[in-house]
Design goal:
This protein is mainly α. It folds into two domains: 46 residues; 38 residues, no CATH class. This is XRE family transcriptional regulator. It comes from Anoxybacillus gonensis.
Length: 85
C-alpha cells in the first residue's frame, strides 16, 4: 500500500515536539536499516529478552553438564514452603 508523503508530513506536523524527536529517531532507524547500516538495536532484536537478562555465570551454568534441579526437588531438598516452577 502506497502512502502519500503529504499524509506523512501532516501526521508529523500534528505531533508534539517530544514525539517528533521519537518519530525522527524511528525514521532514522528505518533509513539505516534499509541501507544496511545496522545499529545496536538491530542486534537487540536478535537476542531474546530472557538471554539479555542472564549473567555470564548463568549462561555457563545453563550450558554445563551439572544437570537440572526441578522446583519440586529443590523444595523437598531445602524444606521450602513455597512452590517453585
Amino acid at each position: 500500500m502506497a502512502v502519500d508523503k503529504k499524509v506523512l508530513h501532516g501526521m508529523i506536523e500534528q505531533l508534539s515536539e517530544s514525539d517528533r524527536q521519537l518519530a525522527y529517531e524511528f525514521l532514522l532507524h528505518l533509513l539505516q536499516r534499509a541501507k544496511g547500516h545496522h545499529q545496536w538495536w538491530d542486534e537487540l532484536e536478535e537476542v531474546s529478552e530472557e538471554e539479555a537478562l542472564l549473567t555470564e555465570q548463568e549462561k555457563r551454568q545453563l550450558q554445563g553438564d551439572e544437570g537440572y534441579v526441578t522446583g519440586g526437588d529443590a523444595k523437598r531438598e531445602f524444606g521450602l514452603q513455597i512452590d517453585l516452577p
